[in-house]
Amino acid sequence: MGAWGLKAFENDQALDFVEALRSADGPADVLRSAIDEADTSEYLEFDEAAEIVVAAEFIAAALGRRGTTVSEDDRPIAEAISFTRAKGLAASCKEALKRVAEKSELQELFAESDAKEVAQWRDYIASLLKKLDTKGLRAPKKKGKAKKKARRKKPKVGQVYALELVTGEYCFAKVVFLSSYIKGSILIRLFKGPRPSKEFIPSQSE
């Protein structure tokens, strides 16, 4: 076993696992395999436990959770996992992560550390477990340039609106009355016929 630290990406096995995810056609399948392998193991060795913690980080990131330790360089891995797929993996990953915290070689290594480090590790795992909770979770909205809503102009007495009919004729609506007492109250007159020029648009008196 090489170097190891408090969080997911601070040990050699985790970095090897990330490399496998980078080169995989479908990172979600690699995560699924790691979780399934952990499910069949009675005792989680260091490598298996380390991979589960990494899987939890990527699944949480794919769910849109904030505060994950996934680096910007590895964000594309999380982005390649659909929200639906991540949500499907979350429950089984959560159970595997509980086993990491309760009985695994990784847990035993931290148990030999000082009380402060043990508490920090347990807090970190607890935060990951919380990020994998999908109850009531909805897919995050995709970021994009917000469309500016067109401002509707208020109608004025005398304004004429034209609507082309399927027959090629036009139906005209002219505003002849606006009520300041009843919101949205508009009285219009309808005219039907070929589209006239501006000179032939009915006047208010007509």
Characterize the structure shown:
Helices cover 44% and strands 11% of the residues. A hairpin with a 7-residue loop joins strand 2 and strand 3 (186-193). It has helices spanning 12-23, 27-39, 46-62, 75-79, 83-102, 105-111, 115-131, and strands at 160-164, 170-178, 186-193. With 206 residues, the protein is mainly α. A three-stranded antiparallel sheet has the order 1-2-3, with no helix packed on it.
Shape: elongated
Number of strands: 3
Going by helix content, strand content and strand pairing, the class is: mainly alpha
Fraction of helical residues? 40-55%
What is the radius of gyration? 32 Å
SS field, number of helical segments: 7
Mean pLDDT, nearest integer?
A: 82
In percent terms, what proportion of residues is strand?
5-15%
Could you tell me how far the N terminus lies from the C terminus, measured between alpha carbons in angstroms?
A: 93 Å
Poorly predicted regions: 198-206
Order of helices and strands: HHHHHHHEEE
Could you describe the largest sheet, including whether it forms a barrel?
3 strands, antiparallel
Side by side, the strands of the main sheet go: 1-2-3
